[in-house]
UniProtKB/TrEMBL annotation:
One of its GO terms (biological process) is tRNA queuosine(34) biosynthetic process. Gene3D superfamilies: 3.30.1130.10. This is NADPH-dependent 7-cyano-7-deazaguanine reductase. Its EC number is 1.7.1.13. Catalyzes the NADPH-dependent reduction of 7-cyano-7-deazaguanine (preQ0) to 7-aminomethyl-7-deazaguanine (preQ1). It comes from Leptospira perolatii. GO terms for molecular function: preQ1 synthase activity. Pathway: tRNA modification; tRNA-queuosine biosynthesis. InterPro entries: GTP-CH-I_C/QueF, NADPH_dep_7-cyano-7-deazaG_red, QueF, QueF_type1. The gene is queF. Its main location: cytoplasm. It catalyses: 7-aminomethyl-7-carbaguanine + 2 NADP(+) = 7-cyano-7-carbaguanine + 2 NADPH + 3 H(+). Pfam families: QueF (PF14489). Keywords: Cytoplasm, NADP, Oxidoreductase, Queuosine biosynthesis. The keyword NADP applies.
Length: 140
């Protein structure tokens, strides 16, 4: 979409997050799932997630919840932690955080099922929760 800051209803920030899908972030490593073929769920809660509001420059705080059913690979926690820490100084909208995390996990471990939620602290009297789900058998 073309950047048109004076058009009614269009944010002056339009187009400034277009680089997010291709931005380089630390790699999320994985290890072999020795229980491949068994359906079990792995849940991660990241209670101190921080990124920067791209409009105000102030920190956004929230809880990132990751739930997945592995196939051949499982997420390696140290690399996941380093990946999440890369967001700390990044100006990024809540919606883009959740979508980018989900897509990077799918690339890393190709799960059978994955759900990523960002439950953000109140900002300006508004509570934001963003959720995206992925299923290897369904829509992505």
């Amino acid at each position: 979409m073309e950047h048109r800051p004076n058009q009614p209803g269009i944010s002056s920030y339009e187009g400034r997050q277009d680089h997010i899908p291709s931005m380089e972030l630390p790699e999320i490593e994985s290890f072999a799932n020795v229980y491949e073929g068994k359906d079990y769920t792995i849940d991660f809660t990241i209670p101190e997630f921080t990124a920067i509001c791209p409009k105000t420059g102030l920190p956004d705080f929230g809880i990132i919840q990751i739930v997945y059913i592995p196939t051949t690979r499982c997420l390696e926690l140290k690399s996941l932690k380093e990946y999440i820490l890369a967001y700390r100084n990044l100006g990024i909208f809540h919606e883009n955080v959740v979508n980018r995390i989900l897509e990077d996990i799918v690339k890393s471990v190709h799960p059978k099922y994955l759900k990523v939620s960002g439950d953000y602290n109140l900002r300006g009297g508004i509570k934001t929760v963003v959720t995206r789900e992925y299923s290897a058998e369904g829509s992505k």
